[in-house]
Amino acid sequence: MESAQQVIEQAISSLDRGEYSQVVQQLSPAYQRYSDNDEILVLLAEALTGSNRSKQALELLSRRGEDSQVSADVLFALGDEYFAGNNQPQALICYRRLLEFPEACAEAWVRIGLISLAEDDISQAKSCFQKALGVDPETLSAMNSLGDLCLDEEDFSEAQNWYKRALEIDAEDSEAWSNLAELYYAEGDVDNAQKCARQALKFDQQFAPAWLMLGYVALDSDDEDQARRCLKQFLSLEYSAAATDIIVEVKAVLSALKGS
Question: Which run of H or E residues covers position 93?
Answer without folding.
Answer: helix 88-98
